[in-house]
Amino acid sequence: MTHDWDAIVVGGGAAGLFAAIFAAERGRRVLLLEKGRKAGVKILMSGGTRCNITHDCDNRGIVEAFGPNGRFLHSALAAFGPKDVLAFFHAEGVMTKVEDTGKIFPVSDRAVDVLDAILRRLDRSRAKLALAEPVLAVEKLVDGSFRVSTGTRQLTCEHLLITTGGLSYPGCGTTGDGYGFARQFGHTVTATRPALVPLTVNAAWVPELKGITVPHAGLKVYDPANKLLDARKGSMLFAHFGLTGPAPLDVSRAVSGHTTPNQLTLEMDFLPGETEVGFDEFLKVETLAQGKKQLAGVMAERLPRRICDAMLAQAEMPADRKAAALSKVDRQKLAAMAKRMRVPLRGTLGFEKAEVTAGGVSLDEVDSRTMQSKIQPGLFFAGEVLNLDGWIGGYNFQSAWSTGYLAGTRL
User: Fold this and answer.
1) Which helix (H) or strand (E) holds 19?
2) Which residues of 288-316 are buried (b: 16+ CB within 10 A; e: fewer)?
3) pLDDT in tens, 318-375
4) Residue 36: DSSP 8-state
5) Taking the model in full, what pTM does it have?
6) Which domains does the chain have, with CATH numbers?
């Protein structure tokens, strides 16, 4: 039987675009179906519209960012790792830069340059991109091929790749369609939840600090039994709802994945590079030396002034208190707050503001060497639709590029 296409890719995000490119460059007849009016919308939104392409590390560093599930990426990264991603974009004229955090961005700081480069390569590959054409149904035919139904036509293909993303940023069109297709073919879909999402808190003083950034903070999430669920270091931004920025986003998976997130506690370390004893000694020495100065002013030599004011308020000390005669008990109380300030959590801002989705198509049912289903021959998965979610910093894009590439070489 002759098929309309050798391969149909459902979903025009990072993984789908790369898969279509590399499949078509092998001479395969490829159709990429995207339900939105534009492909790669999430690429345009990412990194504050700068697009954090990947991370400055080796393959092991990428694997580590995904926790236990990271092992699934070994083959994909061996086939197409961070250096290959950079070579791809450099060849398309997108020069890159490495920032202090290890994040890699285009030199132009323009996500649109990243997407334009991909679309140029897609065009040269001869893959066909169909926009504003959502897939309504998929089915396996008797001869082992697939029929894909959209709102306007029915198409047949030898191989079918699902790269529909997860549930994060639903405004981009990522509404979980791929999970339904996966279940239809007998796949298990691990429970989904928001990841890399801002945290909401039950502490009135936190929103009052909105706009304040802590460049280096340590965060820990504890359950009601005081068991440590997750810990990360990075920058943190106070917001009207709670906390955002790299460190809060990285620990958010533990919060959204808990059955009672409003019973969790977040511990903040405002000085991760200093010991509690060290900060206590700093306060002891400096309050003696600068007794006439306000205590908050002395503390502000190490911490943002508004955080110092908030700490004094939480310690029930006057805002204008002088540094002189600071008792050992009060000094240790402030040192503990600087290193172990705890706030009760409420939850997260949900999928609406999540950068990625935790959970998805079970990795046990997908061959990591090819991205092909172990249950249904000819069916492939790549990108965020899989049960893969990593830290902030370009790791998730790397997963999408790599799994998309690997699938594209096998379609």
Assistant:
1) helix 14-24
2) eebeebbbbebbbebbbebbbbbbbeeee
3) 988 898 888 999 999 999 999 999 999 999 999 999 999 999 999 999 999 999 999 9
4) S
5) 0.92
6) 5-193+355-408 (3.50.50.60), 198-349 (no CATH)
